[in-house]
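re: ur msg from earlier - yeah i can do the molybdenum atom complex, just paste it... oh wait u already did. ok heres what im feeding in:
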Amino acid sequence: MTTTSLPVTPVGARTAATHCPYCALQCGMSLTAEPGRTVDVTPRQFPTNQGGLCQKGWTSAAVLDAPDRLTTPLLRGGDGELRPASWDDALDVVAGSVTRIQQVHGPDAVAVFGGGGLTNEKAYALGKFARTVLRTANIDYNGRFCMASAAAGANRAFGVDRGLPFPLTDLAGADAVLLLGSNLAETMPPSVQHLAGVRSRGGLVVVDPRRSATAALTGEPDDLPVTGGAGPVGDQGVHLQPVPGTDLVVLLALLHVVVTEGLLDGEYVAARTTGFDDVRRAVAAWWPERAETVCGVPAGRLRHVARVLAAASPARGGAGAYVLTGRGVEQSTQGTATVTAAINLALALGLPGRPGSGYGAITGQGNGQGGREHGQKADQLPGYRKIDDPAARAHVAAVWGVDPASIPGPGRPAVELLRSLGARGAAGTYAEDGRPRALLVHGSNLVVSAPDASRVEANLRALDLLVVCDVVPSETALLADVVLPVTQWAEEEGTMTSLEGRVIRRRQVTEPPGEARSELWVLAELARRLGSTVVFPTEPAAVFDELARASAGGAADYSGLSHARLDADEASGGPGLFWPVPAAGASLSPHPGTPRLFLDRFPTPDGRARMVAVDHVGPSDDVRADAPVYLVTGRVLQHYQSGAQTRRVPELDRSVAAPFVELHPVLGVRLGIADGERVRLTSRRGHVEASARWTDRIRPDTVFMPFHWGSAGSVNRVTTDATDPVSGMPEFKVCAVDVRSVKRADGTEVVA
Ligand SMILES: Nc1nc2c(c(=O)[nH]1)N[C@H]1C(S)=C(S)[C@@H](COP(=O)(O)OP(=O)(O)OC[C@H]3O[C@@H](n4cnc5c(=O)[nH]c(N)nc54)[C@H](O)[C@@H]3O)O[C@H]1N2
Ligand SMILES: Nc1nc2c(c(=O)[nH]1)N[C@H]1C(S)=C(S)[C@@H](COP(=O)(O)OP(=O)(O)OC[C@H]3O[C@@H](n4cnc5c(=O)[nH]c(N)nc54)[C@H](O)[C@@H]3O)O[C@H]1N2
Ligand code: SF4
Ligand SMILES: [Mo]
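and the outut:
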């Protein structure tokens, strides 16, 4: 391993307007680079952040010169050590191994795993590389862990998936916002300002088994709600604290109340939706008292919330209402069903497509939205096209200059893909035939972030070839046979698409350190070495132009955009353009973009939104005698995802230096676990250890652990890889665990 401390080398203009490298809020910031100094970050006015940044944004430049930044390719030698190598040698090894593996085992034996942090250009190039050079069906990405259920629900109901089909700033005017399983006060802190209006009108409703920082914004007192009646209601809203994994029941009961109390927008339902009769029948049996027995939320509070939402709806003269979902309800085996129930509720109240109202899912990763539009998802081609649609294949094949028949069909979704790697003949894995033996990873630290991570690690170790492109030696990179150092964020040009579908520019201010190269170059070089005649441009603006052509006519149409147009828009004070932005015809002026979708119709064949009846089943791994406590997982403000980046930022690492487990003092006393004591959580998959943190902000039947650390502190050694049947999204949020002190009462360690 090489470690270098890097002086930052600025390019051309020393200050550039760009956006934060981390989450989908894509806060506006300016970067200034001067020779011999670290890059300075200053917040900038942009609609999503209004001049604010969170602690991660402020400190983001520290990753550019992390002491162990990857600056040269690394190859694993015969002795098992990773050693610096030249690009030529490293790329020859990759090309040689890929060729050998595919000759013996076929094209699908080489798989690709992408990431929602990649720019649109890189995501597009990766999907094209997989389909035209490797000709493998097996490409998927970490968005499957993140947005797949929201996408499946929205595509089915509305005919399109754009996380927020309206600008985030629209929330400001609403009378009510129902926020299910989102802790945006920690995951997108500057966005909280858009909730000021609704809070001042007492209309914020947060659904979370924890009194999260976001739930606390409702102003509800910290102790658990009393049973019966409406219970305590905060001066700024209501916090519903359900049993983990029962949000679907909460939503079915809310719709039940809307129907039985005559609060529905009948005119809208008749004119703009189909399927309501089935949905009405499905919610008939979920009266609030019955729902309370399953979800634990008092019936009176369910009725209260349904009435607050209805009063805010346009049909009843309110200023508007929003229903929003986050990972807390989507990372579930019934994630698509829960999203569908949230959409059904919004449709019954007449919200989607009405200015000032709507349904949305809060996209997570920096380019989590664009990352799912340009073809790194197993079933997609650029422009959010379906890979099994003959017209889509013909269009994209023409742009790529290949025969449509040469484009593979749909591949395996992420969890299935990871399960199929390596391990031979073990229960639940694929047969020997067709299992991938090589994996190329671009932008994910999946050995920390994938569910049932010990199994994932074993499968990665069993591969014939693991290639990881990264900026730092992540836990996954350290398992690789070949590590390729790539550029990040402030070292590259490109575009990102924010949580609202707004296409924005990422700009370069420093030269890449050492020999780090753009992934666009890496893919082009590999294509050449693998004998492909398909052209891979390496200039981001040229890649974007090709992407725009490939997307023309698709749901996510970027054909009216170019880097030049985005730059000109920004120079004239414009805040980016929302897709779809189709190309203008010869005589027309440029398309202005589409900030708000669904105003006139939904992009379904009949123009109406589809309501689909759903029902509650419960978590796949429910509590039982030997695992009597619910484990829920999530995030803290200071760390990002697998922590590969933020654990390398000294200020963030100092703030939250180690994994922890939140538990209620009542549970602590019953299990004999003191505040600060070391605990072990054990599930059917494995165990994890961390220190206990007592807090009365969590249900006493539930513990919470963030997933930002690897090895023995990785909560994903415990989580289940059971997936949603429609979306393939894993159930990260809820599983059953045994919780005990690591030390026995007599002071001896518990033996595994
Ligand atoms: N600081 C920080 N910010 C981030 C990220 C990060 O890693 N760190 N990642 C970004 C990404 S990729 C994403 S996807 C977003 C995620 O953003 P969020 O969805 O806000 O994040 P989480 O913390 O995963 O989950 C939100 C809440 O779900 C709750 N929850 C758990 N189980 C349940 C349940 O059964 N029902 C309900 N109703 N709630 C439940 C948790 O208690 C938690 O408070 O954040 C983005 N922003
Ligand atoms: N238990 C539990 N697990 C979870 C979740 C949860 O809530 N609970 N949430 C899930 C969710 S929503 C998500 S999004 C995933 C995310 O988890 P991961 O997929 O692991 O995401 P990151 O940690 O962001 O990893 C990104 C990696 O890419 C590198 N990188 C940054 N920029 C580039 C680039 O331009 N090119 C390349 N090649 N590499 C780059 C970073 O250094 C880092 O190593 O985790 C999931 N895992
Ligand atoms: S909220 Fe997200 S985009 Fe904004 S500064 Fe924090 S991490 Fe960056
Ligand atoms: Mo995510």
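cool cool. Residues 115-118, 142, 145-146, 327, 331, 364-365, 442-446, 448-449, 469-472, 474, 486, 488, 519, 633-634, 641-642, 644-645, 707, 715-716, 719, 732 surround MGD (ligand 2) (CB under 6 Å). ping me if u need the other ligands too
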